[in-house]
Amino acid sequence: MSPRLRHALCPDEHRARSVLFGANTQGAGFSESARGRSDAPRTLFTADFMRDADNESPSLTESLEDGAGLFDAGNLPVEGLAVPAQLSVVRDRFASLFLRGQRAIGVGGDHHIKYAALAAVSDVFEDCGVVYVDAHPDCVQSDALAFDSILHHAWKLPHVRPERTSLFGIRQVNAREREGLREWKPGVIHAVEVVERGLPAVLDSMVAQLGGVRRVFVSVDLDGLAPHEVPAVEAPYPGGPTFRELLVLLRGLARRYELVGLDVSEFIPELDPARLTALVTARLVKEFAALPSPG
Ligand SMILES: [Mn+2]
């Protein structure tokens, strides 16, 4: 039996405002980093490490709220499934929560959770914006669905558009990804802009770029954040925004958009002996679940 996040105090999924689930998707491949070359199986389920860390070191949210509106649904049964079946299970879970008007929070797992979540966004919403927090643009124009081509494939879905997607925290781009950026032309907020222009200006340009959307989905690859705070990822790269800066951004987005959901990927528990990455993930989940809706 998996642990449950004790902070998630809502006893009934159907009455919850936000629903958390783990989805240990596998098979999107590993990055080109030295750590990423390992073929060692990844620990199942990463969401459980987040739950354990938060249960041992609990906290209310920044605004001193408990998790009365958050239900923890445990983990989806994706172990041992082929990739198409994993994608289908995760996509259906996100979509059913979107259809019920609940905020869906999925903790992976590798990059396949991102594609499944964006496929559900496309299934349910015609004009939802996407904020994609990542050090990398994941837009290589390759026929295979993999860690570096998630957005290339997502932008081929009927209702996920590059002009309604904002990449935040970008700072490690290879030549193939640069080609993808030139082809698709999404919004890009480089990591340095957070300091150079400041978060209020960054938020303003993100809002201007996303256009008239009312809803936004947030996809977080943990390597998008600063590796001194979030070290337990496959491809850490220096110079990212801090968790605090991401939280300020999310609070600004929540004043303007209905935040329909969140996915979090690339947390590798065996690289997290101090549980720092687990605690950042838990805090992200708790704060996201408690963010208000506009007006
Ligand atoms: Mn990444």
Account of the protein in words:
This protein has 295 residues and is of the alpha/beta class. The chain has a single domain (13-290), classed as Arginase, Chain A (3-Layer(aba) Sandwich). It contains nine helices and eight strands. The protein has helices at 46-56, 83-99, 112-124, 150-154, 175-184, 193-196, 199-210, 243-256, 276-290, and strands spanning 18-22, 70-75, 103-107, 129-133, 165-170, 187-190, 215-221, 258-265. The chain has an eight-stranded parallel β-sheet with strand order 2-1-3-8-7-4-5-6, with helices on both faces. α1 (46-56) crosses α9 (276-290), α2 (83-99) crosses α3 and α7 (199-210) crosses α8.
Q: What separation lies between the terminal Cα atoms? A: 40 Å
Q: What is the alpha-carbon Rg in Å?
A: 17 Å
Mean pLDDT over all positions? 95
Count the domains: 1
Fraction of residues in β-strands: 15-25%
Do you know the CATH topology? Arginase, Chain A
CATH architecture: 3-Layer(aba) Sandwich
The topology string of helices and strands comes to EHEHEHEHEHEHHEHEH
| Bound small molecules, deduplicated | manganese (II) ion
Helix content: 25-40%
Any key phrases for this structure?
Arginase family protein, alpha/beta, 295 residues, 9 helices, Arginase, Chain A, binds manganese (II) ion, Ureohydrolase_dom_sf
Short description:
The protein has 295 residues and is α/β, with parallel strands linked by helices. Helices cover 34% and strands 16% of the residues.
